[in-house]
Amino acid sequence: MTALDPTTLMGPLWTLLAYIALGWLAARRLSVDPRPIATLLIYLVAPLTFFRGLVLGGPTPSYLLLTLAAFVTASLLAVSMHYLTRRAFAPQESALLAFSAGTGNTGYFGLPVAMVLLPPEGVTLYLFCVLGITLYEFTVGFYLSARGRFSVGESLAKILRLPLIYAFLAALLVSGLGLTVPTAALEGLAVFPATYTLLGMMIIGMTLGRVSIHALDARFIGACVAVRCVAWPLLALGVVLALQALAPLSPELAMAILLLGVVPMAANVVVVAMELGIAPAKGALAVLATTLAAPLLIPLYLTLMMRLAGP
């Protein structure tokens, strides 16, 4: 596996921080309301981005197995976190913790790093893992988040209204039937991934622009950081070591799995919290904390983990 140069992270980091700063300025100086943008991301931008990525990726059974494994892992982590924290935290905070436990900034932050560290086939492996985590966010994760405020029936109804599920099924149908999406349509959809990144990170800044010092909750942020910066790296390393013990594991897949474990918290934590009205300010502060720590922690973690995992 390729050694990680710490300067690799500086480009993605400063880009993400610039987007957050733009969001902060939009909220403070222009009084922009982030709630309609969160709705736009969830119901339009994310499904089209997801559909395009899956169609272009050319899903195969082996790739979809990675997606399924990532989805199941993320779901189990979230359910476990919900069970462990439901008595120690308020319902909305516990719901947000559960959602954040199953995901990370695998796209906005992790993908640029993956494109530097991995060859094209490794990037494809990484992307199909990311698809599984994204699917978790808008199914199991969304349900757990909604349960912090809504009943079981209301939470399930909200999931059934999410178009990302149908975008996923449509992409599988298109690929399974061998249908060809017109080139003009794919070219039109090419703007959505960048839009998703820009708006997703700006929402963090918009939320921070409305945050007062009273929203600072050290206990909540500490729990988020512990899950993202301790539990996930250990899990990723454990998965790689277990797979290596069972059968030869390609360096590309090993690096893809390790990278999933060391990215900062997902910006979608704030997007979903904003849409459902569950402590978005606390979520934004936790996401910002892990994003700022990423340039220091990721090189350290990956270097140590690669040594432990071997060549």
Number of strands: 0
CATH architecture: Up-down Bundle
How many discrete structural domains?
1
**CATH level-1 class:** Mainly Alpha
Helix content: over 70%
Which sequence of SSEs, written as H and E, runs from N to C? HHHHHHHHHHHHHHH
Average pLDDT, rounded to a whole number, is 84
Radius of gyration: 19 Å
Basic shape: globular
Which stretches of 5+ consecutive residues score pLDDT under 50?
A: none
Fraction of residues in β-strands? under 5%
Based on secondary structure, the structural category is mainly alpha
Instruction: Note the total helix count.
Output: 15
Largest sheet: none
- Distance between the ends: 6 Å
Instruction: Look up the CATH topology.
Output: Na+/H+ antiporter like fold
Describe the structure.
There is one protein chain. This protein has 311 residues and is mainly α. It has one domain (20-177, 192-208, 216-306): Na+/H+ antiporter like fold (Up-down Bundle). It contains 15 helices and no strands. Helix 4 runs antiparallel to helix 7 and helix 4 runs parallel beside helix 12. It is globular, with a radius of gyration of 19 Å. The protein starts with 9 loop residues before the first helix and ends with a helix. 49% of the residues are buried. The mean pLDDT is 84.
